[in-house]
Amino acid sequence: MLRGIRENPLRTAAVGHNVHSDKLAAFVIAAAYAGFAGGLLGVLQAFMPPEAFTFETSGQLVIQTAIGGRGMLFGPLAGAALWLFLQDFLQGPLGLGATWKLVLGLVFVVLVVFLRDGILGGIRDLYRLVARRKAEKATSIAAPAKAPARPPAAAPATVRTHAGNGFSGPIMQTISLTKHYGGLAANEAIDFAVDAGEVRGIIGPNGAGKTTFFKVLTCEVSSRAATSPAWT
User: Fold this and answer.
1) Looking at the predicted structure, is the pLDDT value of residue 218 above 50?
2) Which of 65, 139, 217, 229 has a Cα-to-Cα distance from 130 of 20 to 30 A?
3) Separation between Cα atoms, residue 101 and residue 35, nearest integer Å
4) How far is CA 230 from the centre of its chain?
């Protein structure tokens, strides 16, 4: 849901989500975590220097999240742990001094190129790959060899209906759907209907108004038209 709000808030609202409330909830939760982390930092350092709130600090948090794995609960934690470990190791035993940031930058570039979802994402993908290989191997061993069967005769194509659900007639219909942007008519007097079980396609050249038509159908944009949708 949050990913849908980030990618396309209008379409997310069209399917029934309250985008404003969800954004506010995400902001409050993130602010609570940030405030708690800042309080812990103040307790750890016993004071809060101005450099604790510089752009570099914010950049480090983003990099740590990308290293550990964005979109995962423990991804930022793993990224921060690796960052702090490499920071101490490069400055201490290796004695690189201020060049430790350059080495960490190279590590970050390598991880971004080869592990798009971070370290935890790579571990997750590796686990899924191993599990899939094991499942395929077990299936190939358990399944006995069978003689190739003759393909069944092709059955006549049937159209799925929603009669069992009480639907009859068109499940969506528009009458004289029109959408203007100033003096430009993106859609003009479109009559459109989809019956139960039908699959329809909208084709046309660039600029014909296909995207606008879909946005009007999903209520992303308003139009002046007589519409009678009946969604299933």
Assistant:
1) yes
2) 65
3) 27
4) 28
Quick check: 159 pLDDT over 70? no
Q: Tell me the residue range of the domain where 38 lies.
A: 2-122
Cβ-proximal residues to 207 (8 Å cutoff; 6+ apart), any chain: none
User: What pLDDT score does 28 carry?
Assistant: 93
Q: What CA–CA distance (Å, rounded) separates 219 from 180?
A: 15
Residues 94 and 201 in one domain: no
- 89-108 tens-digit pLDDT: 877 777 777 777 788 788 78
Rounded percentage of the chain residues whose pLDDT exceeds 90: 3
Radius of gyration of the chain from its Cα atoms, rounded to whole angstroms: 28
Domain count for the chain: 2
Residue with the bigger pLDDT between 156 and 122: it is 122
CB burial string 95-132: b at 16+ within 10 A, e below: eeeeebeeebeebbeebeeebebbbbbeeeeeeeeeee
Q: Are residues 110 and 168 in the same domain?
A: no
Q: Are 105 and 170 part of one and the same domain?
A: no
Crossing angle of the two packed helices 118-142 and 55-68, in degrees rounded to 10:
10
**DSSP classification of residue 95:** -
Q: Using an 8 Å Cβ cutoff, are 41 and 52 in contact? A: yes
Assigned domain for 137 exists: no
φ/ψ (deg, to 5) at 181: -115, 90
**Are 115 and 24 contained in the same domain?**
yes
